[in-house]
Amino acid sequence: MNLDLTTFSPAERSTLQLRALYEQAGYRKYRMARFEEYALYQQYESFLPDPQVVTFTDLDGKLRAIRPDVTLSIAKNAQPAPGSCKKYYYTEQVCRPSRESHTFAEISQMGLECLGAVGAAQQAEVVRLARQSLNALGESSVLELGHMGYVTAWLDGVGVAKADRPALLAMLQQKNPHGLLEAARAAGLPDADARDLVSLLELHGPLSATLAAARGRCRFDGQRAALEELTALQNDLGEAGRGLCLDLSLAGDMDYYNGLVFTGYLSGAARPVLKGGRYDLLIRRFTPGAGAIGFALYLDELDRLAAPLPPVRAGEEGTWLNIALPKGRLGDKAYALLAGAGYGAGDYTDSRRLVVENPDAKVRYFLVKPSDVAIYVEHGAADVGLVGKDILAESGADVYELLDTGMGRCRMCVAGPKTFADDESRALRVATKFVNIARAHYEGTGREIDIIKLNGSIELAPILGLSDVIVDIVETGTTLRENDLAVLEEFMPISARLIANKASYKFKQSAITALLQAMKEALAK
Fold this sequence. Notes:
By secondary structure, the protein is of the alpha+beta class. Helices cover 37% and strands 26% of the residues. It folds into four domains: 1-140 and 267-307, Bira Bifunctional Protein, Domain 2 (BirA Bifunctional Protein, domain 2); 147-261, 2-Layer Sandwich (BirA Bifunctional Protein, domain 2); 311-408 and 496-524, Periplasmic binding protein-like II (D-Maltodextrin-Binding Protein, domain 2); 410-494, D-Maltodextrin-Binding Protein, domain 2. The chain has 20 helices and 23 strands. The strands form four sheets. A nine-stranded mixed sheet has the order 1-5-6-12-11-10-7-9-8, with helices on both faces. β3 (55-57) and β4 (63-66) form a beta hairpin.
């Protein structure tokens, strides 16, 4: 009987294809129980993608959890003998919190793990299989390598304190040069070191070219060792390494990854579909002296690729740049900047139109509600967008923050009555529409608060006794003064930022880089 694969979903077809690929490479299927004892996740919480897990008391009285991660279970159970190497692949469901739905969601994963005596040959084999996996899933893909040792060696070399590293790594992951410079200065780095760190963001592109550029900029032995390992990997891969990309600012979780890291993208998918790397730190918790490398594919992203193209993109040719702009005064300023940079669209001023195009420049504008810009970009409906830092921080969108335009400058503040004195014997009542920003700010100070979410007229809350203070945007402070309120604390500068979808940045990098440079030049005039 001939099997008609066209009747299967993209994820189902891919599972069959990849299973054959992995078994031919000598990997055998690993099947695990759906539940684990909660103590495992409690003990190794730092290795989990999210500390929140679903727990329940089993019939034997033990507290168990619905599995949030596959690799941790394999690392615990594999126990490879010295000098041996165990190779597994898996197709499993994991349960993790979903930021979009605010509930736990099942995620379909397929991946492989190589554990034990992992040397250069095994590392090259896993990278080769990652590349072959992407090729099997789509016609256009990008596999981007990085190395944790390159960034770690720089941080160690200049003596960055452990407590300051998370903020720096977060800015590197966002490709946020202005935020990285501020964080470096806040960490006490000299200006020359701070600017050198920001320059790491430039080290990305084709593997060979990026390696060559990085060799001339190494300052520390650990950086040179990372480049030597990447060069050896390139040689081991041979033709299979053609077309690979390298991003030396690619900084994963330092508690998890310790060497080579890599991320895979498919054209049309808004998020990475593959993530992997070396995780010797984890395997050695269970098997001292062992090494490990592997990757996971996110199969749910493949089913999303099967959705038809939206009408606005049907039949388009070439590479279009899709830009989300906020409606209103900020959007008008942003468009004026873009038009001055050579990205104008003649009928933008027709306020009834939500989509405005310039076919000659291959640029398309989406006019959306300001609070929705980051959502459109994160989910790939737009490649880039202009959004206020307040909205970006509140949404927590997983995007690149490429440029601070300086437009619409204001500040996020704590404000209250001029005579306000904090009573630390009780929770502070805070009224705001920026719930996440307010919570993060006060968590940083250790102050207990009760948040009262409002959607407008925030200044009225302390006047009527609804709250003690407010957290809100302040531009001139006129409204506060007219109501006998005052700024008590400023803690976040606000302005319009250029953001980019992470997958779009890989496939449309030249177009986005050209736009970014044109905007910088227009701002400098």
